[in-house]
Design a protein that fits this description.
Length: 167
Protein backbone atom coordinates (compact mmCIF):
# COMPACT_ATOMS: atom_id res chain seq x y z
CA UNK A 1 0.00 0.00 0.00
CA UNK A 2 2.88 2.35 0.76
CA UNK A 3 4.33 1.85 -2.71
CA UNK A 4 0.91 2.28 -4.31
CA UNK A 5 0.35 5.57 -2.53
CA UNK A 6 3.90 6.63 -3.36
CA UNK A 7 3.31 6.13 -7.06
CA UNK A 8 0.14 8.22 -6.79
CA UNK A 9 2.05 11.05 -5.10
CA UNK A 10 4.88 11.05 -7.61
CA UNK A 11 2.47 10.77 -10.53
CA UNK A 12 0.49 13.69 -9.20
CA UNK A 13 3.72 15.66 -8.80
CA UNK A 14 4.64 15.01 -12.44
CA UNK A 15 1.13 16.02 -13.53
CA UNK A 16 1.32 19.28 -11.59
CA UNK A 17 4.77 20.06 -13.00
CA UNK A 18 3.52 19.40 -16.53
CA UNK A 19 0.51 21.62 -15.90
CA UNK A 20 2.68 24.33 -14.36
CA UNK A 21 5.19 24.35 -17.23
CA UNK A 22 3.11 23.44 -20.29
CA UNK A 23 -0.38 24.92 -19.89
CA UNK A 24 0.63 28.60 -19.59
CA UNK A 25 2.87 28.40 -22.66
CA UNK A 26 1.13 25.92 -24.98
CA UNK A 27 -2.43 25.30 -23.64
CA UNK A 28 -4.17 22.44 -21.93
CA UNK A 29 -4.41 20.44 -25.19
CA UNK A 30 -0.66 19.94 -25.35
CA UNK A 31 -0.53 19.11 -21.62
CA UNK A 32 -3.20 16.49 -22.25
CA UNK A 33 -1.09 14.83 -24.94
CA UNK A 34 2.04 15.01 -22.77
CA UNK A 35 0.07 13.27 -20.03
CA UNK A 36 -0.87 10.53 -22.49
CA UNK A 37 2.76 9.70 -23.37
CA UNK A 38 3.03 6.93 -20.74
CA UNK A 39 0.59 4.94 -22.87
CA UNK A 40 3.52 4.16 -25.14
CA UNK A 41 5.17 2.41 -22.18
CA UNK A 42 2.24 0.00 -21.75
CA UNK A 43 3.39 -2.45 -24.47
CA UNK A 44 6.82 -2.63 -22.80
CA UNK A 45 5.18 -3.48 -19.48
CA UNK A 46 3.02 -6.13 -21.12
CA UNK A 47 6.15 -7.78 -22.49
CA UNK A 48 8.31 -7.47 -19.36
CA UNK A 49 5.90 -8.27 -16.50
CA UNK A 50 5.33 -12.01 -16.21
CA UNK A 51 1.89 -13.53 -15.97
CA UNK A 52 0.65 -14.55 -12.56
CA UNK A 53 1.81 -18.08 -11.70
CA UNK A 54 -1.53 -18.75 -10.01
CA UNK A 55 -3.37 -17.79 -13.19
CA UNK A 56 -1.10 -19.97 -15.32
CA UNK A 57 -1.59 -22.91 -12.97
CA UNK A 58 -5.36 -22.58 -13.11
CA UNK A 59 -5.14 -22.53 -16.88
CA UNK A 60 -3.23 -25.82 -16.81
CA UNK A 61 0.06 -24.19 -17.79
CA UNK A 62 1.98 -25.47 -14.76
CA UNK A 63 5.36 -25.63 -16.50
CA UNK A 64 5.22 -21.90 -17.27
CA UNK A 65 4.07 -21.16 -13.71
CA UNK A 66 6.95 -23.17 -12.24
CA UNK A 67 9.42 -21.42 -14.51
CA UNK A 68 8.24 -17.98 -13.36
CA UNK A 69 8.31 -18.99 -9.68
CA UNK A 70 11.81 -20.46 -10.06
CA UNK A 71 13.03 -17.28 -11.72
CA UNK A 72 11.51 -15.15 -8.94
CA UNK A 73 13.09 -17.38 -6.28
CA UNK A 74 16.50 -17.08 -7.91
CA UNK A 75 16.18 -13.28 -8.16
CA UNK A 76 15.25 -13.17 -4.47
CA UNK A 77 18.23 -15.36 -3.56
CA UNK A 78 16.10 -18.29 -2.42
CA UNK A 79 16.69 -21.94 -3.11
CA UNK A 80 14.02 -23.46 -5.36
CA UNK A 81 11.76 -26.00 -3.70
CA UNK A 82 13.05 -29.55 -4.31
CA UNK A 83 9.57 -31.02 -4.76
CA UNK A 84 6.95 -28.48 -5.84
CA UNK A 85 4.15 -31.09 -5.76
CA UNK A 86 2.50 -29.76 -8.88
CA UNK A 87 0.11 -32.70 -9.08
CA UNK A 88 -1.73 -31.72 -5.90
CA UNK A 89 -4.28 -28.97 -6.51
CA UNK A 90 -4.27 -25.97 -4.22
CA UNK A 91 -7.14 -25.91 -1.76
CA UNK A 92 -9.00 -22.66 -1.98
CA UNK A 93 -11.38 -21.27 0.57
CA UNK A 94 -14.55 -19.98 -0.99
CA UNK A 95 -15.85 -16.80 0.56
CA UNK A 96 -18.99 -15.55 -1.18
CA UNK A 97 -19.44 -11.79 -1.41
CA UNK A 98 -22.84 -12.16 0.23
CA UNK A 99 -20.98 -13.09 3.43
CA UNK A 100 -19.91 -9.44 3.73
CA UNK A 101 -23.56 -8.56 4.30
CA UNK A 102 -24.23 -11.31 6.81
CA UNK A 103 -25.03 -10.45 10.40
CA UNK A 104 -21.46 -11.05 11.58
CA UNK A 105 -19.77 -8.80 8.98
CA UNK A 106 -22.37 -6.15 8.11
CA UNK A 107 -21.21 -3.51 10.63
CA UNK A 108 -17.58 -3.90 9.57
CA UNK A 109 -18.48 -3.78 5.89
CA UNK A 110 -20.56 -0.61 6.20
CA UNK A 111 -17.98 1.06 8.44
CA UNK A 112 -15.11 0.30 6.02
CA UNK A 113 -17.11 1.47 3.02
CA UNK A 114 -18.00 4.76 4.72
CA UNK A 115 -14.43 5.22 5.94
CA UNK A 116 -12.95 4.47 2.52
CA UNK A 117 -15.44 6.78 0.80
CA UNK A 118 -14.59 9.65 3.17
CA UNK A 119 -10.85 9.14 2.69
CA UNK A 120 -11.06 8.91 -1.09
CA UNK A 121 -13.55 11.76 -1.43
CA UNK A 122 -11.59 14.13 0.76
CA UNK A 123 -8.15 13.33 -0.62
CA UNK A 124 -8.81 12.89 -4.32
CA UNK A 125 -11.64 15.38 -4.36
CA UNK A 126 -9.50 18.13 -2.89
CA UNK A 127 -6.55 17.52 -5.17
CA UNK A 128 -8.75 17.16 -8.25
CA UNK A 129 -10.76 20.34 -7.65
CA UNK A 130 -8.04 22.38 -6.01
CA UNK A 131 -6.60 24.03 -9.14
CA UNK A 132 -10.06 25.16 -10.21
CA UNK A 133 -10.95 26.45 -6.74
CA UNK A 134 -7.66 28.30 -6.42
CA UNK A 135 -8.06 29.76 -9.90
CA UNK A 136 -11.32 31.39 -8.74
CA UNK A 137 -9.45 33.21 -5.95
CA UNK A 138 -6.19 33.87 -7.78
CA UNK A 139 -5.74 36.18 -10.75
CA UNK A 140 -3.77 33.58 -12.70
CA UNK A 141 -4.00 29.87 -13.28
CA UNK A 142 -0.21 29.67 -13.03
CA UNK A 143 -0.36 30.95 -9.43
CA UNK A 144 -2.92 28.30 -8.50
CA UNK A 145 -0.70 25.61 -10.06
CA UNK A 146 2.22 26.87 -7.99
CA UNK A 147 0.14 26.41 -4.80
CA UNK A 148 -0.86 22.90 -5.84
CA UNK A 149 2.78 22.12 -6.65
CA UNK A 150 3.88 23.20 -3.18
CA UNK A 151 1.11 21.15 -1.55
CA UNK A 152 1.97 18.10 -3.63
CA UNK A 153 5.65 18.31 -2.73
CA UNK A 154 4.69 18.71 0.93
CA UNK A 155 2.59 15.53 0.93
CA UNK A 156 5.32 13.27 -0.46
CA UNK A 157 7.28 12.76 2.78
CA UNK A 158 4.13 11.63 4.60
CA UNK A 159 2.93 9.27 1.90
CA UNK A 160 6.28 7.82 0.99
CA UNK A 161 7.54 7.15 4.50
CA UNK A 162 9.08 3.80 3.74
CA UNK A 163 8.61 0.92 6.11
CA UNK A 164 11.68 -0.37 7.95
CA UNK A 165 11.98 -3.45 5.72
CA UNK A 166 12.42 -1.21 2.66
CA UNK A 167 15.34 0.89 4.02
Amino acid sequence: MVLLESFWAFGWLVAVIIAYLVIPVYSWNIAFFVGALPLFYAPVLLKKIPESPRFLERQGRTAEAEEIVSKMEKEAGLQPSPDPQVDQPEKTVKFPVSELFSRSYLRRTVFLWVLWFCIVFSYYGIFTWLPSLLALKQPSLLKSFSYVLIMTIAQIPGITALPSWWR
